[in-house]
């Protein structure tokens, strides 16, 4: 894409179970509006309900069109004039299934893309038991760059990120509700996905404790060489970084590791 810088803001929201979902939507919308100078604003995974609050998933599920989170985030994106990756919601499909679905709004408030999380966490419990799996690689083109969309547990599956690279991704956006006890894995995997993909990674997590699970926070922006440009602490915080989309192509040209991929090896 072009060489104009992209100002990206990660909004690491504290998900407090004592705060009503409607109140948190209003607060999140106000935070988005406060970053009207950004090109792209990113929120965390399942911030309206909490990524580990599985008992509340069904009650808090909402449609993509006309649901309370979609309406609030559409208005916030429009008022701020930003591209808004609104994190993810518990989506209730009209046919019944639940999905962990990320929403991307354009500066005019239109829903530009949606990504249903492919890899569900829980090992036959929680999200893995209650939600259906997405089946599509989603890499929407923005004026600034091509985004590659993934969510939280997807970080542990590098093959998904290879497919995002093949789809043209230059900036990988990963909302998460990552537990504090695996913070070391969070840092390692975010940087690994940047290095192997030669992409920027914007990884935005939640803060606080919900369903008894302390959240890691530590949202990060990482460059195509794996260098951390900015990292939050454990509490509610916003990070703003300037990204140079041209650096992705330059990195791939200077160190053309992606050219040397060997595909189609026989299965043992």
From TrEMBL:
Membrane spanning stretches: none
Domain CN hydrolase positions: 6-245
Keyword Transmembrane helix: no
Keywords in alphabetical order: Hydrolase
InterPro entries according to UniProt: C-N_Hydrolase, C-N_Hydrolase_sf, UPF0012_CS
Gene3D superfamilies xrefs: Carbon-nitrogen hydrolase (3.60.110.10)
An annotated Gene Ontology molecular function: hydrolase activity
Similarity section: Belongs to the carbon-nitrogen hydrolase superfamily. NIT1/NIT2 family.
Name of the molecule in the record: Predicted amidohydrolase
Organism annotation: Actinacidiphila rubida
């Amino acid at each position: 894409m072009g060489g104009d810088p992209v100002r990206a803001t990660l909004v690491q929201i504290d998900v407090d179970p004592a705060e009503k979902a409607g109140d948190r939507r209003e607060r999140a919308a106000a935070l988005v509006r406060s970053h009207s100078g950004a090109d792209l604003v990113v929120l965390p995974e399942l911030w309206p309900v909490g990524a580990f609050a599985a008992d509340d998933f069904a009650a808090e599920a909402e449609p993509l069109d006309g649901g309370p989170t979609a309406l609030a985030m559409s208005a916030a994106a429009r008022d701020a004039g930003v591209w808004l990756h609104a994190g993810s919601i518990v989506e209730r499909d009209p046919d019944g299934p639940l999905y962990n679905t990320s929403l991307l709004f354009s500066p005019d408030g239109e829903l530009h893309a949606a990504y249903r999380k492919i890899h569900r966490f829980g090992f036959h419990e929680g999200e893995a038991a209650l939600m259906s799996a997405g089946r599509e690689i989603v890499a929407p083109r923005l004026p600034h760059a091509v985004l590659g969309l993934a969510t939280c547990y997807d970080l542990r599956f590098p093959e998904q990120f290879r497919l995002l690279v093949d789809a043209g991704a230059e900036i990988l956006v990963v909302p998460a509700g990552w537990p504090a006890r695996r913070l070391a894995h969070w840092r390692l995997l975010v940087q690994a996905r940047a290095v192997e993909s030669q992409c920027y990674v914007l990884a935005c997590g939640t803060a606080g404790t919900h369903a008894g699970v302390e959240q890691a926070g530590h949202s990060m922006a990482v460059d195509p060489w794996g260098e951390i440009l900015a990292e939050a602490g454990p509490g509610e915080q916003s990070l703003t970084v300037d990204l140079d989309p041209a650096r992705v192509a330059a990195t791939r040209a200077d160190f053309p590791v992606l050219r040397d991929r060997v595909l189609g090896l026989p299965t043992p």
